[in-house]
Write a structure and sequence with these properties.
binds magnesium ion; alpha/beta; binds adenosine-5'-diphosphate; globular; four-stranded antiparallel beta sheet; 34% helix; 7 helices; 218 residues; single chain
Length: 218
């Protein structure tokens, strides 16, 4: 299997006055092309910190990581913009859709900034929202809004889809359906998916489970 991400000793600390918070401590791992990885860990264990660094939204204070052999932590801002547009898709707990745009327009916006986007209608169909494409976020349930957010992330055709507690704002059965959608996407498009979730049932169907403990990954 091809390695798409290799991380060596990734660390992140925040200086809060006199106190240094070590959010991430020396995480070293590889992510392989096409795998479905679940990250578990209690609140405050550094999961979001790690995902934000991998997504090029935050920089580590120590260590390095590579995307297909290219170092990401030393990229210029311009290169990081490209990395975020092309390589990674991000799904957040609270959807973060643009309220004044329809579902289709939210997805379109992401497709427009990506160099190699997938077909918008194909993706709206994948997430089961073809009929709702003209609706605004306020006209949709939480589960539907998260489907739009997933469509927006995957339409860019990213090699790596990062999801930070994508079911955290949803009830159990809606959350499970969203996780199944992410799994379908992984199977159909063979793209790497990494999700933070507390759902242990999803831990069982993951190819690999990462556990974060006090900033350390294993
Ligand atoms: P998780 O996602 O597993 O709940 P986080 O990665 O959000 O954990 O946070 C890990 C630790 O780093 C926590 O102790 C948190 O308070 C701290 N932390 C995260 N972001 C910041 C920040 N911007 N400034 C200071 N401390 C932070
Ligand atoms: Mg978090």
């Amino acid at each position: 299997m091809e390695t798409i991400i290799r991380a060596e000793g990734l660390s992140k600390s925040y200086q809060m006055g006199e106190v240094t918070v070590e959010a991430l401590k020396e995480a070293s791992f590889e992510l392989y092309d096409g795998e479905f990885v679940v990250m578990l860990g209690h609140s405050g264990s550094g999961k979001s910190t790690l995902l934000n660094i991998l997504g090029g939204m935050d920089s580590p204070s120590g260590g390095s990581f590579w995307y297909k052999g290219t170092p990401v932590d030393t990229m210029t801002n311009r290169q990081l913009v490209d990395y975020r547009r092309k390589t990674v898709g991000f799904v957040f707990q609270f959807f973060n859709l643009i309220p004044s745009l329809t579902a289709r327009e939210n997805v379109q916006l992401a497709a427009d900034i990506a160099p190699n986007p997938l077909d918008i209608d194909e993706i709206l169909e994948l997430v089961g929202l073809k009929e709702r494409a003209g609706h605004f976020p306020s006209q949709m349930s939480g589960g539907e809004q998260q489907r739009v957010a997933i469509a927006r992330a995957v339409v860019k055709n990213p090699d790596l889809l990062l999801c930070d507690e994508p079911t955290g704002a949803l009830d159990l059965s809606t959350g499970l359906a969203v996780l199944e959608l992410l799994q379908d996407y992984n199977k159909r498009y063979h793209k790497t998916v990494m999700i933070i979730t507390h759902n242990t049932a999803i831990g069982q169907i993951a190819h690999r489970v990462f556990t974060m403990r006090d900033g350390r990954g294993s």
